[in-house]
Amino acid sequence: MSGKYRFPSEEWIKAFKEELNRNKEYEEAAKDWEGDFLFVITPDEGLDKEYCFYVDLYHGKCRDARVVASRDEVKTEFVYEGPYSNWKKLIRGEIDPIKGLLTRKFKLKGNMAKVMRYTKAAKLLVETASRVPTEFV
Amino acid sequence: MWYFISPKVVFGEDALDYLSEVKGKRALVVTDKVVRELAAERVAEKLREAGLDIEFYDEVEAEPSTSSVARGLEVARRLQPDLIVAVGGGSCIDTAKAIWALYENPELSIEDIAPLAELKLREKARLIAVPTTSGTGSEATWAAVITDPAEHRKMELAHHELVPDIAVVDPSLAKTMPPKLTAATGMDVLAHAIEAYVSQWANDFTDGLALKAIELVFRYLPRAYRSPDDMEAREKMHNAATIAGLAFSNSMIGVAHALAHSIGGLFKIPHGEAVGMCLPYTIEYDLPEAEDRLEQIAHHLRLSYTSRREAGLKLADEARRLLSEMGLPATLAERGVAESELEENMDKLVRLAMSSGGTTINPRIPSEEDYRKLFRYIYEGRRVDF
Protein backbone atom coordinates (compact mmCIF):
# COMPACT_ATOMS: atom_id res chain seq x y z
CA MET A 1 0.00 0.00 0.00
CA SER A 2 2.55 2.98 -0.46
CA GLY A 3 1.21 5.10 2.40
CA LYS A 4 -2.06 5.65 0.62
CA TYR A 5 -5.54 4.81 1.79
CA ARG A 6 -7.88 3.00 -0.50
CA PHE A 7 -11.16 4.82 -1.20
CA PRO A 8 -13.70 3.76 -0.08
CA SER A 9 -12.60 1.90 3.04
CA GLU A 10 -12.65 1.99 6.83
CA GLU A 11 -8.99 3.09 6.78
CA TRP A 12 -9.74 6.00 4.47
CA ILE A 13 -12.61 7.37 6.52
CA LYS A 14 -10.55 7.09 9.72
CA ALA A 15 -7.69 8.97 8.05
CA PHE A 16 -10.20 11.61 6.92
CA LYS A 17 -11.48 11.98 10.47
CA GLU A 18 -7.94 12.55 11.78
CA GLU A 19 -7.15 15.04 9.04
CA LEU A 20 -10.40 16.94 9.66
CA ASN A 21 -9.75 17.13 13.40
CA ARG A 22 -6.36 18.70 12.66
CA ASN A 23 -7.89 21.36 10.41
CA LYS A 24 -8.18 24.58 12.44
CA GLU A 25 -9.76 26.50 9.56
CA TYR A 26 -12.55 23.93 9.32
CA GLU A 27 -12.96 24.00 13.10
CA GLU A 28 -13.57 27.75 12.97
CA ALA A 29 -15.92 27.65 9.98
CA ALA A 30 -18.01 24.81 11.46
CA LYS A 31 -17.84 25.82 15.12
CA ASP A 32 -21.63 26.12 15.40
CA TRP A 33 -22.45 23.18 13.14
CA GLU A 34 -24.36 20.24 14.59
CA GLY A 35 -25.42 17.46 12.27
CA ASP A 36 -24.44 14.01 11.07
CA PHE A 37 -24.06 12.82 7.50
CA LEU A 38 -24.34 9.63 5.58
CA PHE A 39 -21.96 9.76 2.63
CA VAL A 40 -23.21 7.31 -0.02
CA ILE A 41 -20.93 6.18 -2.84
CA THR A 42 -22.96 4.46 -5.52
CA PRO A 43 -21.14 1.98 -7.80
CA ASP A 44 -19.65 2.82 -11.20
CA GLU A 45 -16.18 2.85 -12.81
CA GLY A 46 -14.97 -0.36 -11.17
CA LEU A 47 -16.68 -0.03 -7.83
CA ASP A 48 -18.75 -3.17 -7.45
CA LYS A 49 -21.15 -2.20 -4.69
CA GLU A 50 -22.54 0.70 -2.75
CA TYR A 51 -20.44 2.02 0.15
CA CYS A 52 -21.69 4.19 2.99
CA PHE A 53 -19.77 6.31 5.51
CA TYR A 54 -21.31 7.60 8.71
CA VAL A 55 -19.78 10.95 9.66
CA ASP A 56 -20.83 12.84 12.79
CA LEU A 57 -19.81 16.50 12.73
CA TYR A 58 -20.25 18.60 15.84
CA HIS A 59 -18.94 22.07 16.69
CA GLY A 60 -16.01 21.98 14.29
CA LYS A 61 -14.90 18.44 15.10
CA CYS A 62 -15.58 15.02 13.68
CA ARG A 63 -16.85 12.91 16.58
CA ASP A 64 -17.28 9.70 14.65
CA ALA A 65 -16.52 8.41 11.16
CA ARG A 66 -16.93 4.82 10.04
CA VAL A 67 -18.13 2.53 7.31
CA VAL A 68 -21.69 1.30 7.73
CA ALA A 69 -23.00 -1.82 6.07
CA SER A 70 -25.89 -0.14 4.30
CA ARG A 71 -27.76 3.14 4.02
CA ASP A 72 -30.47 1.70 6.26
CA GLU A 73 -28.12 0.98 9.17
CA VAL A 74 -28.15 4.55 10.50
CA LYS A 75 -30.54 7.46 10.32
CA THR A 76 -28.73 10.75 9.80
CA GLU A 77 -29.78 14.38 9.47
CA PHE A 78 -28.19 14.60 6.02
CA VAL A 79 -27.45 12.20 3.18
CA TYR A 80 -24.85 13.23 0.58
CA GLU A 81 -24.90 10.82 -2.33
CA GLY A 82 -23.16 10.45 -5.66
CA PRO A 83 -21.56 7.95 -8.00
CA TYR A 84 -18.02 6.74 -7.37
CA SER A 85 -16.69 8.56 -10.45
CA ASN A 86 -17.89 11.88 -9.04
CA TRP A 87 -16.50 11.13 -5.58
CA LYS A 88 -13.11 10.60 -7.24
CA LYS A 89 -13.36 13.99 -8.93
CA LEU A 90 -14.46 15.61 -5.68
CA ILE A 91 -11.53 14.18 -3.73
CA ARG A 92 -9.12 15.20 -6.50
CA GLY A 93 -10.51 18.75 -6.31
CA GLU A 94 -11.97 18.59 -9.81
CA ILE A 95 -15.54 19.30 -8.67
CA ASP A 96 -16.48 22.25 -6.50
CA PRO A 97 -18.65 20.75 -3.72
CA ILE A 98 -21.37 23.39 -3.98
CA LYS A 99 -21.40 23.38 -7.77
CA GLY A 100 -21.53 19.59 -7.59
CA LEU A 101 -24.82 19.87 -5.74
CA LEU A 102 -26.24 22.59 -7.97
CA THR A 103 -25.50 20.55 -11.09
CA ARG A 104 -26.90 17.37 -9.51
CA LYS A 105 -23.63 15.48 -9.64
CA PHE A 106 -24.34 14.88 -5.98
CA LYS A 107 -27.64 14.72 -4.16
CA LEU A 108 -28.22 16.11 -0.71
CA LYS A 109 -31.11 15.08 1.48
CA GLY A 110 -31.78 17.16 4.58
CA ASN A 111 -32.29 20.81 5.43
CA MET A 112 -30.76 22.58 2.41
CA ALA A 113 -31.03 26.04 3.94
CA LYS A 114 -28.94 24.90 6.93
CA VAL A 115 -26.18 23.57 4.70
CA MET A 116 -26.16 26.69 2.53
CA ARG A 117 -25.31 28.74 5.61
CA TYR A 118 -22.17 26.67 6.09
CA THR A 119 -20.79 26.61 2.57
CA LYS A 120 -17.31 27.56 3.73
CA ALA A 121 -17.27 24.60 6.11
CA ALA A 122 -18.50 22.33 3.30
CA LYS A 123 -15.73 23.50 1.04
CA LEU A 124 -13.10 22.97 3.73
CA LEU A 125 -14.53 19.52 4.45
CA VAL A 126 -13.93 18.53 0.84
CA GLU A 127 -10.50 20.16 0.74
CA THR A 128 -9.61 18.07 3.78
CA ALA A 129 -10.65 14.93 1.90
CA SER A 130 -8.22 15.97 -0.84
CA ARG A 131 -5.39 15.98 1.70
CA VAL A 132 -5.88 12.31 2.59
CA PRO A 133 -3.37 10.28 0.56
CA THR A 134 -5.79 8.28 -1.54
CA GLU A 135 -5.72 5.42 -4.01
CA PHE A 136 -8.82 4.48 -5.92
CA VAL A 137 -10.02 0.97 -6.79
CA MET B 1 -20.59 21.44 -16.09
CA TRP B 2 -22.33 24.71 -15.37
CA TYR B 3 -25.32 26.67 -16.66
CA PHE B 4 -26.00 30.05 -18.16
CA ILE B 5 -29.54 31.06 -17.35
CA SER B 6 -31.21 34.19 -18.65
CA PRO B 7 -34.72 35.57 -18.98
CA LYS B 8 -35.92 36.85 -22.33
CA VAL B 9 -34.64 40.43 -22.15
CA VAL B 10 -36.72 43.12 -23.85
CA PHE B 11 -34.73 46.36 -23.72
CA GLY B 12 -34.49 49.88 -25.04
CA GLU B 13 -36.86 52.73 -25.70
CA ASP B 14 -40.52 51.63 -25.71
CA ALA B 15 -39.66 48.18 -24.36
CA LEU B 16 -42.74 48.59 -22.19
CA ASP B 17 -44.90 48.20 -25.32
CA TYR B 18 -44.00 44.51 -25.28
CA LEU B 19 -46.36 44.10 -22.33
CA SER B 20 -49.40 44.89 -24.47
CA GLU B 21 -48.78 41.60 -26.27
CA VAL B 22 -48.31 39.21 -23.36
CA LYS B 23 -50.68 36.28 -22.93
CA GLY B 24 -52.62 35.76 -19.73
CA LYS B 25 -55.86 36.31 -17.84
CA ARG B 26 -55.08 37.77 -14.44
CA ALA B 27 -51.97 39.64 -13.42
CA LEU B 28 -50.78 40.48 -9.95
CA VAL B 29 -48.63 43.60 -10.12
CA VAL B 30 -46.18 43.64 -7.22
CA THR B 31 -44.86 47.10 -6.44
CA ASP B 32 -44.69 49.82 -3.78
CA LYS B 33 -46.84 52.89 -3.37
CA VAL B 34 -44.33 55.35 -4.83
CA VAL B 35 -43.49 53.21 -7.86
CA ARG B 36 -47.17 52.53 -8.41
CA GLU B 37 -47.69 56.22 -9.16
CA LEU B 38 -44.47 56.66 -11.11
CA ALA B 39 -44.40 53.53 -13.23
CA ALA B 40 -46.63 50.61 -12.29
CA GLU B 41 -49.80 52.30 -13.54
CA ARG B 42 -48.10 52.60 -16.96
CA VAL B 43 -47.24 48.93 -16.82
CA ALA B 44 -50.80 48.04 -15.83
CA GLU B 45 -52.17 50.06 -18.74
CA LYS B 46 -50.11 47.98 -21.17
CA LEU B 47 -51.27 44.76 -19.51
CA ARG B 48 -54.88 45.88 -19.78
CA GLU B 49 -54.30 46.46 -23.50
CA ALA B 50 -53.25 42.80 -23.61
CA GLY B 51 -56.65 41.92 -22.12
CA LEU B 52 -55.52 41.03 -18.60
CA ASP B 53 -57.35 41.79 -15.37
CA ILE B 54 -55.04 43.56 -12.97
CA GLU B 55 -54.73 43.65 -9.23
CA PHE B 56 -52.01 45.57 -7.40
CA TYR B 57 -50.11 44.53 -4.35
CA ASP B 58 -48.37 47.82 -3.55
CA GLU B 59 -47.20 47.29 0.01
CA VAL B 60 -43.60 46.26 -0.63
CA GLU B 61 -41.24 47.96 1.81
CA ALA B 62 -37.71 49.12 1.13
CA GLU B 63 -35.33 46.27 2.07
CA PRO B 64 -38.40 43.99 2.16
CA SER B 65 -39.15 41.72 5.06
CA THR B 66 -40.85 38.36 5.33
CA SER B 67 -44.09 40.17 6.21
CA SER B 68 -44.02 42.02 2.85
CA VAL B 69 -43.92 38.61 1.24
CA ALA B 70 -46.63 37.13 3.47
CA ARG B 71 -49.10 39.93 2.71
CA GLY B 72 -48.48 39.64 -1.03
CA LEU B 73 -48.85 35.89 -0.87
CA GLU B 74 -52.33 36.26 0.62
CA VAL B 75 -53.31 38.44 -2.34
CA ALA B 76 -51.86 35.93 -4.80
CA ARG B 77 -53.69 33.01 -3.19
CA ARG B 78 -56.98 34.88 -3.39
CA LEU B 79 -56.48 36.22 -6.92
CA GLN B 80 -54.91 33.08 -8.47
CA PRO B 81 -52.96 35.04 -11.12
CA ASP B 82 -51.38 33.40 -14.15
CA LEU B 83 -48.94 36.29 -14.42
CA ILE B 84 -46.98 38.02 -11.69
CA VAL B 85 -45.46 41.31 -12.77
CA ALA B 86 -42.86 42.90 -10.53
CA VAL B 87 -42.45 46.63 -11.07
CA GLY B 88 -39.82 48.50 -9.09
CA GLY B 89 -36.33 48.16 -7.75
CA GLY B 90 -34.79 45.06 -6.25
CA SER B 91 -37.15 45.17 -3.27
CA CYS B 92 -40.24 44.77 -5.45
CA ILE B 93 -38.69 42.18 -7.77
CA ASP B 94 -37.26 40.11 -4.91
CA THR B 95 -40.58 40.21 -3.06
CA ALA B 96 -42.39 39.10 -6.22
CA LYS B 97 -39.96 36.19 -6.63
CA ALA B 98 -40.64 35.00 -3.09
CA ILE B 99 -44.41 35.43 -3.48
CA TRP B 100 -44.24 33.51 -6.77
CA ALA B 101 -42.25 30.63 -5.28
CA LEU B 102 -44.56 30.26 -2.28
CA TYR B 103 -47.73 30.69 -4.35
CA GLU B 104 -46.63 27.80 -6.55
CA ASN B 105 -45.27 25.72 -3.67
CA PRO B 106 -47.69 26.17 -0.74
CA GLU B 107 -45.99 23.41 1.22
CA LEU B 108 -42.74 25.39 1.46
CA SER B 109 -41.72 28.13 3.87
CA ILE B 110 -39.61 31.07 2.81
CA GLU B 111 -36.41 29.54 4.24
CA ASP B 112 -36.93 26.55 1.95
CA ILE B 113 -36.24 28.66 -1.15
CA ALA B 114 -32.71 27.34 -1.41
CA PRO B 115 -30.65 26.23 -4.40
CA LEU B 116 -31.26 22.52 -3.91
CA ALA B 117 -34.95 22.62 -3.10
CA GLU B 118 -37.47 20.88 -5.30
CA LEU B 119 -39.14 24.04 -6.49
CA LYS B 120 -42.04 23.77 -8.91
CA LEU B 121 -42.53 26.98 -10.82
CA ARG B 122 -44.49 28.08 -13.88
CA GLU B 123 -47.32 25.63 -13.22
CA LYS B 124 -49.61 28.45 -12.05
CA ALA B 125 -47.94 31.65 -13.22
CA ARG B 126 -45.04 33.22 -15.08
CA LEU B 127 -42.95 36.09 -13.72
CA ILE B 128 -42.20 39.29 -15.58
CA ALA B 129 -39.79 41.77 -14.00
CA VAL B 130 -39.84 45.44 -14.92
CA PRO B 131 -37.00 47.27 -13.16
CA THR B 132 -37.41 50.96 -12.35
CA THR B 133 -33.96 51.35 -10.83
CA SER B 134 -30.66 50.59 -12.51
CA GLY B 135 -29.06 48.51 -9.83
CA THR B 136 -29.89 45.14 -8.40
CA GLY B 137 -30.16 43.28 -11.69
CA SER B 138 -32.77 41.15 -9.96
CA GLU B 139 -34.75 41.06 -13.20
CA ALA B 140 -32.04 38.75 -14.55
CA THR B 141 -31.02 36.71 -11.52
CA TRP B 142 -31.94 33.62 -9.54
CA ALA B 143 -31.54 35.39 -6.20
CA ALA B 144 -33.84 37.30 -3.88
CA VAL B 145 -32.85 39.08 -0.70
CA ILE B 146 -35.54 39.19 1.98
CA THR B 147 -34.97 40.46 5.53
CA ASP B 148 -35.86 38.37 8.54
CA PRO B 149 -36.92 41.16 10.94
CA ALA B 150 -36.58 39.02 14.04
CA GLU B 151 -32.88 38.42 13.43
CA HIS B 152 -32.11 41.57 11.39
CA ARG B 153 -30.72 39.10 8.89
CA LYS B 154 -30.83 39.38 5.12
CA MET B 155 -31.81 35.97 3.82
CA GLU B 156 -30.19 35.19 0.48
CA LEU B 157 -32.88 33.13 -1.22
CA ALA B 158 -31.72 31.48 -4.42
CA HIS B 159 -32.87 28.89 -6.89
CA HIS B 160 -32.17 28.49 -10.59
CA GLU B 161 -35.89 28.44 -11.31
CA LEU B 162 -36.37 31.89 -9.79
CA VAL B 163 -34.99 33.67 -12.86
CA PRO B 164 -37.92 35.68 -14.26
CA ASP B 165 -39.34 34.56 -17.60
CA ILE B 166 -39.13 38.03 -19.08
CA ALA B 167 -37.20 41.16 -18.11
CA VAL B 168 -38.53 44.40 -19.57
CA VAL B 169 -35.66 46.89 -19.37
CA ASP B 170 -37.15 50.21 -20.43
CA PRO B 171 -34.90 53.20 -19.64
CA SER B 172 -37.81 55.63 -19.42
CA LEU B 173 -38.72 54.00 -16.11
CA ALA B 174 -35.37 54.88 -14.59
CA LYS B 175 -35.42 58.58 -15.36
CA THR B 176 -37.31 59.53 -12.20
CA MET B 177 -34.65 58.09 -9.93
CA PRO B 178 -33.29 60.84 -7.67
CA PRO B 179 -29.51 61.40 -7.84
CA LYS B 180 -28.75 59.66 -4.54
CA LEU B 181 -30.61 56.54 -5.61
CA THR B 182 -28.96 56.67 -9.04
CA ALA B 183 -25.57 56.76 -7.29
CA ALA B 184 -26.24 53.96 -4.82
CA THR B 185 -27.86 51.60 -7.30
CA GLY B 186 -25.08 52.32 -9.79
CA MET B 187 -22.46 51.27 -7.24
CA ASP B 188 -24.41 48.04 -6.78
CA VAL B 189 -24.03 47.41 -10.51
CA LEU B 190 -20.28 47.98 -10.26
CA ALA B 191 -20.01 45.60 -7.31
CA HIS B 192 -21.98 42.92 -9.14
CA ALA B 193 -19.80 43.18 -12.21
CA ILE B 194 -16.43 43.25 -10.42
CA GLU B 195 -17.39 40.42 -8.09
CA ALA B 196 -18.71 38.36 -11.01
CA TYR B 197 -15.41 38.84 -12.84
CA VAL B 198 -13.17 37.78 -9.94
CA SER B 199 -15.48 35.04 -8.63
CA GLN B 200 -14.16 31.50 -8.38
CA TRP B 201 -17.11 30.58 -10.58
CA ALA B 202 -16.43 33.21 -13.26
CA ASN B 203 -16.63 31.62 -16.70
CA ASP B 204 -16.39 32.39 -20.40
CA PHE B 205 -20.07 33.23 -20.61
CA THR B 206 -20.00 35.80 -17.81
CA ASP B 207 -16.60 37.46 -18.29
CA GLY B 208 -17.58 39.61 -21.27
CA LEU B 209 -20.81 40.69 -19.59
CA ALA B 210 -18.98 41.69 -16.43
CA LEU B 211 -16.34 43.73 -18.28
CA LYS B 212 -18.98 45.49 -20.39
CA ALA B 213 -21.01 46.41 -17.31
CA ILE B 214 -17.90 47.77 -15.53
CA GLU B 215 -17.06 49.87 -18.57
CA LEU B 216 -20.62 51.23 -18.78
CA VAL B 217 -20.69 52.16 -15.10
CA PHE B 218 -17.45 54.14 -15.17
CA ARG B 219 -18.51 55.89 -18.35
CA TYR B 220 -22.17 56.64 -17.69
CA LEU B 221 -22.89 56.56 -13.95
CA PRO B 222 -21.38 60.02 -13.23
CA ARG B 223 -23.40 61.43 -16.13
CA ALA B 224 -26.65 59.82 -14.98
CA TYR B 225 -25.98 61.13 -11.47
CA ARG B 226 -25.19 64.69 -12.56
CA SER B 227 -27.79 64.99 -15.32
CA PRO B 228 -30.92 62.97 -14.56
CA ASP B 229 -32.39 63.88 -17.95
CA ASP B 230 -29.40 62.51 -19.88
CA MET B 231 -31.35 59.65 -21.44
CA GLU B 232 -28.31 58.11 -23.11
CA ALA B 233 -26.65 57.74 -19.71
CA ARG B 234 -29.90 56.47 -18.19
CA GLU B 235 -30.30 53.84 -20.90
CA LYS B 236 -26.68 52.68 -20.65
CA MET B 237 -26.93 52.36 -16.86
CA HIS B 238 -30.25 50.53 -17.12
CA ASN B 239 -28.66 48.07 -19.53
CA ALA B 240 -25.54 47.81 -17.35
CA ALA B 241 -27.64 46.76 -14.37
CA THR B 242 -29.24 43.87 -16.25
CA ILE B 243 -25.94 42.88 -17.89
CA ALA B 244 -24.21 42.80 -14.50
CA GLY B 245 -27.18 40.85 -13.12
CA LEU B 246 -26.70 38.23 -15.81
CA ALA B 247 -22.98 38.11 -15.03
CA PHE B 248 -23.20 37.59 -11.30
CA SER B 249 -26.24 35.36 -11.47
CA ASN B 250 -24.24 32.94 -13.60
CA SER B 251 -21.00 33.25 -11.63
CA MET B 252 -21.42 34.63 -8.11
CA ILE B 253 -21.26 37.63 -5.85
CA GLY B 254 -18.42 37.90 -3.33
CA VAL B 255 -17.25 39.41 -0.10
CA ALA B 256 -18.48 42.96 -0.82
CA HIS B 257 -22.00 41.58 -0.81
CA ALA B 258 -21.40 39.41 2.25
CA LEU B 259 -20.20 42.50 4.14
CA ALA B 260 -22.97 44.71 2.76
CA HIS B 261 -25.75 42.28 3.64
CA SER B 262 -24.42 42.19 7.21
CA ILE B 263 -24.12 45.93 7.73
CA GLY B 264 -27.23 46.66 5.68
CA GLY B 265 -29.37 44.39 7.83
CA LEU B 266 -28.01 45.57 11.18
CA PHE B 267 -27.47 49.29 10.58
CA LYS B 268 -30.34 49.83 8.13
CA ILE B 269 -28.10 51.04 5.31
CA PRO B 270 -29.67 50.74 1.85
CA HIS B 271 -28.03 47.95 -0.10
CA GLY B 272 -26.47 50.03 -2.89
CA GLU B 273 -24.88 52.40 -0.42
CA ALA B 274 -23.60 49.55 1.73
CA VAL B 275 -22.12 47.53 -1.11
CA GLY B 276 -20.61 50.62 -2.76
CA MET B 277 -18.92 51.47 0.52
CA CYS B 278 -17.50 47.95 0.92
CA LEU B 279 -16.33 47.50 -2.66
CA PRO B 280 -12.95 49.31 -2.61
CA TYR B 281 -11.89 47.42 0.51
CA THR B 282 -12.83 44.07 -0.96
CA ILE B 283 -10.93 44.80 -4.18
CA GLU B 284 -7.85 45.38 -2.00
CA TYR B 285 -8.61 42.31 0.09
CA ASP B 286 -8.98 40.13 -3.01
CA LEU B 287 -5.71 41.33 -4.54
CA PRO B 288 -3.44 38.53 -3.27
CA GLU B 289 -5.69 35.89 -4.89
CA ALA B 290 -7.09 37.80 -7.85
CA GLU B 291 -4.31 40.09 -9.06
CA ASP B 292 -4.53 38.86 -12.64
CA ARG B 293 -8.31 39.26 -12.88
CA LEU B 294 -8.27 42.70 -11.28
CA GLU B 295 -5.44 43.74 -13.60
CA GLN B 296 -7.57 42.64 -16.56
CA ILE B 297 -10.34 44.98 -15.39
CA ALA B 298 -7.86 47.83 -14.95
CA HIS B 299 -6.50 47.13 -18.44
CA HIS B 300 -10.02 47.16 -19.88
CA LEU B 301 -10.59 50.56 -18.25
CA ARG B 302 -7.23 51.79 -19.63
CA LEU B 303 -5.93 52.71 -16.19
CA SER B 304 -2.19 53.34 -16.06
CA TYR B 305 -0.11 51.15 -13.76
CA THR B 306 3.28 49.51 -13.56
CA SER B 307 2.42 46.28 -11.75
CA ARG B 308 -0.55 44.00 -11.22
CA ARG B 309 -0.80 45.02 -7.61
CA GLU B 310 -0.82 48.67 -8.55
CA ALA B 311 -3.54 47.94 -11.14
CA GLY B 312 -5.76 46.47 -8.41
CA LEU B 313 -5.10 49.36 -6.06
CA LYS B 314 -5.88 51.87 -8.82
CA LEU B 315 -9.16 50.06 -9.49
CA ALA B 316 -10.05 50.35 -5.79
CA ASP B 317 -9.18 54.06 -5.94
CA GLU B 318 -11.39 54.50 -8.99
CA ALA B 319 -14.29 52.98 -7.05
CA ARG B 320 -13.52 55.37 -4.16
CA ARG B 321 -13.40 58.28 -6.62
CA LEU B 322 -16.89 57.37 -7.87
CA LEU B 323 -18.21 57.29 -4.29
CA SER B 324 -16.72 60.67 -3.53
CA GLU B 325 -17.89 62.22 -6.81
CA MET B 326 -21.45 61.19 -6.01
CA GLY B 327 -21.38 62.08 -2.32
CA LEU B 328 -21.72 58.51 -1.08
CA PRO B 329 -20.11 57.49 2.21
CA ALA B 330 -16.81 55.66 1.92
CA THR B 331 -16.66 54.58 5.56
CA LEU B 332 -19.06 53.37 8.24
CA ALA B 333 -18.03 56.33 10.39
CA GLU B 334 -19.05 58.71 7.59
CA ARG B 335 -22.38 56.87 7.38
CA GLY B 336 -23.00 57.73 11.02
CA VAL B 337 -22.36 54.33 12.59
CA ALA B 338 -20.77 54.78 16.03
CA GLU B 339 -17.65 52.77 16.80
CA SER B 340 -19.29 51.39 19.93
CA GLU B 341 -22.25 50.23 17.84
CA LEU B 342 -19.89 48.46 15.46
CA GLU B 343 -18.03 46.70 18.27
CA GLU B 344 -21.25 45.73 20.07
CA ASN B 345 -22.54 44.09 16.91
CA MET B 346 -19.23 42.68 15.68
CA ASP B 347 -19.90 39.01 16.49
CA LYS B 348 -23.24 39.10 14.74
CA LEU B 349 -21.83 40.97 11.74
CA VAL B 350 -19.11 38.37 11.36
CA ARG B 351 -21.50 35.46 11.77
CA LEU B 352 -23.84 36.84 9.12
CA ALA B 353 -20.99 37.49 6.70
CA MET B 354 -19.58 34.01 7.24
CA SER B 355 -22.92 32.45 6.32
CA SER B 356 -23.26 34.44 3.10
CA GLY B 357 -22.92 32.64 -0.20
CA GLY B 358 -20.54 35.40 -1.26
CA THR B 359 -17.95 34.24 1.28
CA THR B 360 -17.21 30.82 -0.13
CA ILE B 361 -17.05 31.66 -3.81
CA ASN B 362 -14.94 34.78 -3.35
CA PRO B 363 -11.42 34.43 -4.77
CA ARG B 364 -10.01 34.86 -1.25
CA ILE B 365 -12.08 33.16 1.42
CA PRO B 366 -12.12 35.23 4.61
CA SER B 367 -11.69 33.84 8.09
CA GLU B 368 -13.64 35.32 10.99
CA GLU B 369 -10.60 37.37 11.89
CA ASP B 370 -10.39 38.71 8.34
CA TYR B 371 -14.00 39.81 8.55
CA ARG B 372 -13.42 41.54 11.90
CA LYS B 373 -10.55 43.45 10.36
CA LEU B 374 -12.51 44.28 7.22
CA PHE B 375 -15.40 45.74 9.24
CA ARG B 376 -12.93 47.86 11.24
CA TYR B 377 -11.07 49.00 8.14
CA ILE B 378 -14.38 49.97 6.51
CA TYR B 379 -15.30 51.86 9.64
CA GLU B 380 -12.01 53.78 9.67
CA GLY B 381 -11.47 54.09 5.92
CA ARG B 382 -8.06 52.36 5.94
CA ARG B 383 -6.62 50.74 2.85
CA VAL B 384 -6.62 46.96 3.34
CA ASP B 385 -3.05 45.83 4.08
CA PHE B 386 -3.44 42.23 5.24
Describe, in plain words, how this protein is organized in 3D:
The complex is a heterodimer of chains A (137) and B (386). By secondary structure, chain A is an alpha/beta fold. Helix content of chain A is 37%, strand content 29%. Chain A is built from six helices and seven strands; from the N terminus they run βααββββααβααβ. Chain A has a five-stranded mixed β-sheet with strand order 4-3-2-5-6. In chain A, strands 1-7 form a two-stranded parallel ribbon. With 386 residues, chain B is of the alpha/beta class. Chain B has two domains: 8-174, 3-Layer(aba) Sandwich (Rossmann fold); 183-380, Dehydroquinate synthase-like - alpha domain (Dehydroquinate synthase-like, alpha domain, Up-down Bundle), CATH 1.20.1090.10. Chain B has helices at 33-49, 66-79, 90-104, 179-198, 204-226, 231-249, 255-267, 271-300, 308-325, 339-344, 346-354, 357-361, 368-380, and strands at residues 8-11, 26-30, 53-57, 83-88, 126-131, 143-148, 153-158, 166-169. A six-stranded parallel β-sheet of chain B has the order 1-8-5-4-2-3, sandwiched between helices. A two-stranded antiparallel sheet of chain B has the order 6-7. The longest helix of chain B is centred in the last third of the chain and has 30 residues, at 271-300. The model of chain B has no long low-confidence stretch (mean pLDDT 96). Chains A and B meet through helix 2, helix 4, helix 5 and helix 6 of A and helix 12 of B.
